[in-house]
Amino acid sequence: MIASLHGSLASLTPDQAIVVVSGVGYRVMIPRNSVQAREGDEILLHTEMIVREDAITLFGFSTPAERDLFNLLTTVSGVGPKLALNIVGTMSLDGLRNAIASGHPEMLTRVPGIGKKLAEKIMFELKDKLKSGDGLVAVTMLSDVNKDVMDALAGLGYSIAEAQAALSAIPPETPEAFEERLRLALQYFV
After folding, report:
1. What is the value of pTM for the model shown?
2. Which among 73, 137, 149, 189 could disulfide-bond with 84, CB atoms 3.0 to 4.6 Å apart, if both were Cys?
3. Are 37 and 3 in contact (CB under 8 A)?
4. What are the tens digits of pLDDT across the range 127-176?
5. Which of 100, 87, 81, 79 is nearest to 34 (CA)?
6. CB of 45 within 8 A of CB of 61?
């Protein structure tokens, strides 16, 4: 098994990278737009190797937490490696926890390839696996105002992960007013 690759980035597309290690180029599938490096840069990818009867595929992640989330998602029946990669590229671990804790499958249905039925299945199968005692960040519930801000940001074309990052950057003492929270969230992107 290949647990990580440390080498030179030879090629990068939104969903795959070619990493050259000791003269050998490895094609690695990555979450959409997750690698923030340029061709020629030295990078480290935490990988998971999936062996199927017709292919051996490497999936790469910027952090071990992303890889762990990917592995957790692939334990859900109906979620294969490509869909799990799509989820990791769209949602953060905290976002997935929020969706599960709040019981809102529509947060998961924003990920391309996930309908309401599969979102509910993911939530059901992962609710016990994503408890706060597992060494990961605890769940924080999204208020109705924050859900509205997330919807507004998604409507403006931001991904769920970007919207969650903008929400987490809002100071906790900020009033629960939609306009103010949206203004601060948009400032995050400036």
Report:
1. 0.69
2. 73
3. no
4. 877 764 443 333 344 566 777 888 888 888 887 778 877 888 888 788 87
5. 87
6. yes
